[in-house]
Every structure is written in structure tokens, then in C-alpha cells.
Amino acid sequence: MSVSPRILWRYAIACVVCTLIALRVWPHAPLSERVSMSTGVWSADGELLRVTLSADDQYRLWVPLPRMSAALVDAFLLKEDRWFYWHCGVNPVALARAAFRTYRGERQGGSTLTMQLARLLYRLNTKAPAGKLRQIGAAVWLETRYSKRELLETYLNVVPFGGNIQGVGAASLVYFGKPPDRVTLGEALTLAVIPQRPASRAGSPSGRDWDGCGSRITATPRPTAGRSSCRSSPGRKARCPGRHLISSTRCSPVPRL
Prior knowledge:
This protein has 257 residues and is of the alpha+beta class. Helix content is 40%, strand content 9%. It is built from nine helices and seven strands; from the N terminus they run αββααααααααβββββ. It has a five-stranded antiparallel beta sheet with strand order 1-2-6-4-5, with no helix packed on it. Strands 3-7 form a two-stranded antiparallel ribbon. Strand 4 (217-221) and strand 5 form a beta hairpin. Helix 2 (70-80) runs parallel beside helix 8 (185-193) and helix 4 packs across helix 6. The protein is globular and about 75 Å long.
């Protein structure tokens, strides 16, 4: 007794749907556990007093998506991936357009927001074709396991802003002296364009592009058996043994757009 192709297609589609549902609901660690974070010390009135370096010497302050301004989220989606809610991790049209322009000698990015997140999380080298294929596979895997909200929240908390500043939580404080839920539309657009070329648009870490830095950054090591301390100039990363608490400053670096 033969089975009609229509029934076979229905069974195949049902199996794929069940597999996707199982992958999504199967218990898995949140993406926030994949990234080491800084620890902030806040005053009673909400002012940031101190912040530690993460395990990989980065400044990251995790901020939940509801505590980011809508203008900031929309600005990143507009600049990085306006079809984020419509694709499954890969935008074939954008990739084809990028490949064609690259072939013509023009520079054009085709990575979706999820692909960028995969590159950051798995530290992929995407300059070679093999690395790009791994990036595509990782992006599809992330889309299968996590919701769009989780992916967007994680991306905004790990996106680079030049130097050792990552995530909108740290960047909004460093550049504008305010948390990400209080940035204006203009400030949100400024932050959104920095990740495209963080090295050139965020300014150098030497302190030349920092405006209004009137105080020094003091790094105090965690309590140990011995005594040690170190200091650094404004905008410079403190070089001290171990992980340190860095006093906040009123520096306002001016990004080059």
C-alpha cells in the first residue's frame, strides 16, 4: 500500500515543527551566562560609584531590554538589521547583495544581528568563507534555541563600542553619563553607528578625544593579603594585578561620526 506524497509532506512538516519546538523548550542556560559581566556599585540615588572589569578585561553592565529606551533599540535595529523580526537568523537577500558588491570591490556587510551575535559569542573568524559558513550555522542554531527578545537583549549587551567598552549599559554611561533608558533620540543614533566602525568612531583610548575629564580614574584592587594600588589617566585602562574596582568619572568622549 503506497502512501501519497501529500501525506508524506505533512508528516515531514510535522516532524520539523516538533523538532523546533523541542529545541526551544528543552532546558538550556540563558545567553547572559555565556558572557562575563562587570559588577557595578550604585549609590542610593542611582549614581554609579564603581564598576569592575569583567574576566576578559572588558567593561560590560548587563541591562535588561525593558530598561533600554525604545529609541535606542529602534536605532540599532534600523542601522544593523531592520528585518530582524522576519528572518530565521540569516537574510539571504542581504548576503547575496553583500557578496555581489564585495566581488565588485565595494565594502558591504550582509550579516544579520543574530549573525553578529554568533560571531561575538563564539569568537568566529568570519573573513574566510569557512568562518562565514560557521557563522551562518551558529546564527540559525541561536534562533532555534532562543527567542528574538533574548537575542536582541544579548546583542545590545555585548556589542563593541571601542576600546574595552561593550554593551549599551557601559557605553551610554561612558559617552553620555546616563543609563540607556534615558538617552535621547540623537544620542541613541550616535551609539547605533559606533559598532559599525568602533575603532575609528569611538575615539582612541589615549584620552585625546575625551572632553571634560576633570578627575583621575582610580583603580582599587580587591582585598588581598598584601597591599597594592594603581592609578591610570583618564580614558586609559588601569594595569593592575588581578581584577579591580574602577571609580566612575564624569568623562564625555565625543564619538567621531
